[in-house]
Amino acid sequence: MDEQPDARAWRSLVTAVLVLEEALDRQSQRDGGLPHAYYSLLVFLYETPGHRLPASELAARLRHSPSRLTHAVTSMEKSGWLVRERSAVDRRVQIVALTEAGSRLVRRVSPRQATEVRAVALSKLSPQQVGQLEQISTAIVAALDERDDSA
Questions:
Q1: Residue 80 region, left (φ>0) first, then alpha (ψ -120 to 50), else beta?
Q2: Per-residue model confidence (pLDDT) at position 120
Q3: Choosing a second label site near 47 at 20 to 30 A (CA), which of 4, 30, 36, 55?
Q4: Residue 141: which of 59, 62, 35, 43 has the closest Cα?
């Protein structure tokens, strides 16, 4: 069967994303003792001013369902990396905040994560291809955002 170029491209993309996610999950498990999805959540809070966000906003930005976020936060709270607090402005709002232990974990794992991404995803690409990858990835995320907004 003769495949269309776009079919080869999207299959290649899906495979690359899966392989990269598996490599990053192995690295974050090895170096931090947590799944990559949890590490990504910690990094997101680490990079957020004040290291805290309302749970609903955090779930939306990470594209997690409320139940998925609750499960992750509960697990990471037990490890001491996150805490949940009530908003001082609206007691109905739950805030997820990064702890000092969570910040230390991010600072410890991040350099190794960057090394892993470079080795697995970028080392075989030219500088021009790295720029193209950024543009392509940004376009894919924008298309998914548009789709989510219209749903």
A1: left
A2: 86
A3: 30
A4: 62
**For residue range 39-77, what is the model confidence (pLDDT) as tens digits?**
999 999 999 999 999 999 999 888 899 899 999 999 999
Cα separation of 97 and 111, whole Å? 22
Number of helical H runs and strand E runs in the chain? 6, 3
Tell the residue number behind the tokens 């799944």, with chain if given: 35
Distance CA 130, CA 132 (A): 5
Fill in the amino acid letter for 42: L
Residues forming beta bridges with residue 136, ordered by sequence position: none
- Name the token pair of 28: 């974050």
Q: What's the whole-model pTM score?
A: 0.84
Contact 79, 89 (CB under 8 A): no
Q: Which long-range contacts (CB under 8 A, 24 or more apart) does 10-18 make?
A: 16/121
Burial 38-54 (b: 16+ CB within 10 A, else e): bbbbbbbbeebeebbbe
b (16+ CB within 10 A) / e for 82-101: beeeeeeeeeeebbbebbee
Q: What gap in Å lies between CA 45 and CA 96, rounded to an integer?
A: 9
